[in-house]
């Protein structure tokens, strides 16, 4: 790569809104041009939803923006592995919505139970409802518990946490690791594609290994994976060996690595006909779009939400846009940075539509940093554009970390810089 990693990070943060900003000059008077303030309702306060709410308001302050979330703050999945590995406190990755309110976004705490796309209304559990001209849905993920025999939501909440939605299960998994005896076995059941944060399981294994190395050096980590390969595999394998020797073992789909059954009573999992026993078991099940997307008829048979390229308007429900992990945005991965980039393009498209203008040409960026150890980082980065109506990767833009551990310490710093930058962009003042 001719561009430095730090330089790419700065360029990425800037480019995330380039396509969105293009052509929006003068779009500050939708109330007068449309006979009254337009109304945008956003469901979800995470990377996609909070970004969409903020940027619609930035692009056109006259738009009435309401963001609805079931919580009063958002705990990020990015960097939650640092909490599990004992390197951060969960408060450090939890962000409230105060700055959004200061920007004029009406933040509502409540659970959405229904979307009526024809009447253009959103209904909450308490019976209240909100009308909209455009709706942005960013519900994140839900889980296909039926895919693994014996694995239920109750098992996840009490015995074998997935911790793939940051919060209580993040703390539960951390507690289980702290209570595990030295010499114990940690088993991870990795998910099949597609899933949230492709490098996430392998970063988690690394940071748990870092904790074991310092506190329980005789312990072992076993990853049972239905896939035949995984994101940044050569970099992870190199980093695992360099930092932890043979502590981490990965068994992929070619060798029967996919978990098909669990038994919380005996703390065992079954993969490829073989039963494995662990002291702490982290089961990350197959995933799909968040519940409300299915309730509203936004998801197809794949379990995810098809959208129009660039505008992120649902192909199934007019007037409704879906951003973040729930949408079918390939080749963009399901990541926090991708959700942020998607939401900015979506916000720009909505404002343009309110002014009867063509949405600006979209562009996207994504950078995925992973920490193999506190001072050992790796990354993959890409820029995306539209060609012939399809999203494609831009040749020569982005890249991956070099093998050999070169710049690994610097990349660990870049990872922390990235997190600080993007969370400030979304939830900061």
Entry summary:
The chain has helices at 5-15, 18-21, 30-33, 47-59, 80-84, 98-102, 153-158, 168-179, 200-215, 233-244, 291-295, 336-354, 408-427, and strands at 39-43, 64-69, 73-75, 94-96, 106-109, 112-116, 121-124, 129-131, 134-137, 141-143, 185-189, 220-224, 248-251, 259-263, 268-271, 274-277, 280-283, 287-289, 320-322, 364-373, 376-387, 390-393, 399-400.
Describe the structure.
By secondary structure, this protein is of the alpha/beta class. 31% of the residues lie in helices and 24% in strands. The protein has 13 helices and 23 strands. It has a five-stranded parallel beta sheet with strand order 5-2-1-9-19, with helices on one face. A four-stranded parallel beta sheet has the order 13-12-11-17. Strands 20, 21, 22 and 23 form a four-stranded antiparallel beta sheet that branches. Helix 4 runs parallel beside helix 12, helix 4 (47-59) packs across helix 13 and helix 9 runs parallel beside helix 10. The two termini are 34 Å apart.
Q: Overall 3D geometry? A: globular
Mean pLDDT across all residues, rounded? 92
Quaternary status: single chain
Determine the strand fraction and express it as a percent band: 15-25%
Major beta sheet, strand line-up? 5-2-1-9-19
Radius of gyration: 22 Å
Percent helix range: 25-40%
The count of helical stretches stands at 13
Structural class designation: alpha/beta
How far apart are the termini?
A: 34 Å
Number of strands: 23
Main sheet specs: 5 strands, parallel
Q: Give the uncertain stretches in residue-range form.
A: 1-34
